[in-house]
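Appendix B, record 7
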Amino acid sequence: MKKNILLVEDDDTSAAILEHHLGRYGFNILRAKEGREALRIISETPVALLTLDVQMSGMNGFEFLKELRRTPGISNIPVIILTWDARSAPYGAGVQIRRRRLHLEAIFCRRDSPLGSNG
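Structure tokens (predicted):
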């Protein structure tokens, strides 16, 4: 069974680029345009990884991350913050922050990856 990756991204172009690249690894890609929608999806569907934009309307990425981390059963989902927002620095503990080119192979192909094999 394919593992799910949830893109929490309000920008259609950014989401399409991520979906294209992540889809090459055989994952099922889900998308939410803001934090509340993402929490609803996670409550209904198992998710192996989240990519999270910080600057979104409605519940922004920081508010979403706080809610995610205090909710039992979903608090350990790995999160990759994809943003240019300098305020993301305090969230470095337990969160992978990539400010340059996203190296997907480093995330998906490592033996110790939380995603493991997908298939």
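Remarks on this record: The first strand starts at residue 4 and ends at 8. The helical segments are 12-23, 35-44, 61-69, 104-108.
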